[in-house]
Amino acid sequence: LLERKTHVKISRKEVLLAKMRKSCTFTPKKLKNFVMDFFPVLQWLPKYQCKQYIWGDVMSGLVIGIILVPQAIAYSLLAGLKPIYSLYTSFFANIIYFLMGTSRHVSVGIFSLISLMVGQVVDRELLLAGFDLNDDVSPASADSSLQNDSQFNTTAFNFTTTGMNTECGKECYAIGVATALTFVAGVYQVLMGIFRLGFVSMYLSESVLDGFATGASLTILTAQVKYLIGIKIPRSQGHGMLVITWINIFRNISQANLCDVITSAICIVVLVTAKELGDRYKHKLKFPLPTELVVIVVATLVSHYGKLNEVYASSVSGAIPTGFIPPKVPHFNLMLRVAVDALPLAIVSFVFTVSLSEMCAKKYAYTIRANQEMFAVGFCNIIPSFFHSFATSAALAKTLVKTSTGCQTQVSGVISAMVVLLVLLFLAPLFYSLQKCVLACIIIVSLRGALRKFRDVPARYQVNKVDTLVWVVTMSASALISTEIGLLVGIVFSMLCIIVRTQRPRTALLGQIQDTSFYEDDFEYENLSSVPKVKIFRFEAPLYYANRNYFLKSLHRLTNLDPNVEAARRKKYNKEKQHLKKGDHTTANGLGIRETTLQLVPKQIDFQALVLDCSSISFLDTTGVNTLKEILKDYKDLNISVLLACCNPSVIDSLQSGGYFGKDFASMKEMLFYSIHNAVQFAKDQK
Fold it and tell me: What is the DSSP string of 286-334?
């Protein structure tokens, strides 16, 4: 036997107290390190190589800013808010991540999935407050209400919500819900960072995230169809929103606005063609074509000079005010209403940001700090929530564009924020005549990547059938029920798949590879030789309470021997033999004693040693230890020795603690072996 090292036992209490003392002590050096760690910009900005980095950062910042403006205006439809709030969100998120983020390349800002999740909560709360979800108000009325109220909060309802008596319009209440939701999500993320709960992201596998993104994309697409064809239907809420929306669409298809349909068709053709050409010739282009911006500018000019709203009743964006609204503390009572909804929002936002940050860090050979990313995203939600902004996250499409246009550091994020600021201060009113169907086209075309996942299903199925099933279940639940429930269903289902796979793992009898000391699965490989008088059994999973019965059934089936049945048969056989000696030739069932004795003749057992290959058993619980002890006793009654091979230290410790080797461990060297071949040789040497 190998000699185990003696480890000095360290008191966890003492370790915890030492860490607390270290954390609570205050020195100027610790304060400096804390500030430097909390604001990573203080570490890398003084080392910024201006000549080497500035051109790439400026170019990528301008490109992302140009892309960000039309996307921000478009995604406001998903969130059920006015475009100005999306622009606020994009501006503040870039500035705060510049100060606190550890990734050099990730683009943080408005994201379609996050906007959808915010919009669903906003719609629900608006309905509960008694507002009409129909957002197709005439621009004239919207404009007049903006002039009457400097903060464009139309005073239309007087209501009481959970003890908060407030006089507030639909738009005011909607942004109040969104900021409360964003603030709580940010608090959750900061708390997760403080308590180092970043491991939560491990439970969101790639299949769950892809399925969630695809299902949410179907929901987003469905929500935009009414803008594409210019029909007025109520915004569906609750479970099954996708199905209900499509039913309403087909019921009202006759009311489609021909002007919106033609505009949508033209915009989609232009956008898709430009995207496909951009993907095909991206190696020749120094930066992506600003197709969305061109489409928005042209569509706005056509809509304005063609008077599409007045002549054809085409729905337009309406007035977008300039400047900043005075900051406002999110309502505490609304926070209580949306506290549960903020949890999945916080987790999804963090997971997408960290996964993209790790992807960029791996590609460009630097490191990020996942815990600091949690703080960065948290404060990208907490601080902007005071400035009428909603939840943010890293976005894959903009991150890829950022890296492809020469981005070197988060200085590019500041440049993007300046572009958004320019729109906020001066250019926002120019988008008054922009049709909503154009914004819907931009959103739908941006979903190409997620919707293309359907093409990958056959290849995914060939790689792993279980992961494909997880993807399908998550996608279906996210689309057909709701995004939050879909995410929960995906996590639970993927965990169940893992549990089922450990409950019914692969089992095998092993044969010897000829002229070697190695053994493999006799069912999978040719030309393996069986070892005389020895059975070698492999169980490819931890042995615990959930798979105990499967372990025993598989062992009995593959060795063709159930020791309990065989022991009972032998006991009855010996009993019948005693009757025969006494001269009693009949039994209770009327059969002759000789006939019964012949039926109970013990089986001819073709092995005298059972070797258990424990190389795939990562741990044992109490049930697992007791199962091995039962096997040891049952086979010993049949004069069959049980030998364990390739046990890891954790399994050995569990066996010792459970008394498998006896009190003094004297027989341990005859029961435990560090290779299958050693166990087989020992079994052969036994009489």
Answer: SS---HHHHHHHHHHHHHHHHTHHHHH---B------S-PPP-PPPHHH
Give the pLDDT confidence score for residue 135 in this predicted structure. 54
- 308 and 204 part of one domain: yes
The Cα 333–Cα 164 span in angstroms is 7
Low-confidence ranges of the chain (pLDDT < 70): 1-2, 134-167, 286-288, 579-603, 666, 687
Nearest CA-CA partner of 551 in 521, 519, 506, 511 = 506
Three-state SS annotation for 200-264: HHHHCCHHHHHHHHHHHHHHHHHHHHHHHHCCCCCCCCCCCHHHHHHHHHHHCHHHCCHHHHHHH
Residue 17 covered by a domain: no
The H or E element spanning position 509 is strand 507-513
Check whether residue 461 and residue 516 sit in a common domain. Answer: no
Q: What is the pLDDT of residue 238?
A: 72
d(CA 625, CA 40): 50
Q: Spell 99-134 as b/e; 16+ CB within 10 A means b.
A: bbbbbbbbbbbbbbbbbbbbbbbbbbbbeebebebe
Contacts made by residues 15-24, CB under 8 angstroms, sequence distance 24+: none
Query: Tokens 């205006």 sit at which residue?
Result: 73
Do 435 and 399 have their domain in common?
yes
Query: How far is Cα of residue 218 from the mean position of the Cα atoms in its chain?
Result: 18
Q: H/E/C letters for each residue in 64-128? A: HHHHHHHHHHHHHHHHCCCHHHHHHHHHHHHHHHHHHCCCCCCCEECCHHHHHHHHHHHHHHHHH
| Angstrom distance (rounded) from CA 51 to CA 519 | 62
Domain assignment of residue 68, given as a range: 52-132+169-318+336-446+453-499
What is the spatial distance between Cα 333 and Cα 339, in angstroms, rounded to a whole number? 10
Closest CA to 78 of 491, 340, 387, 446: 446
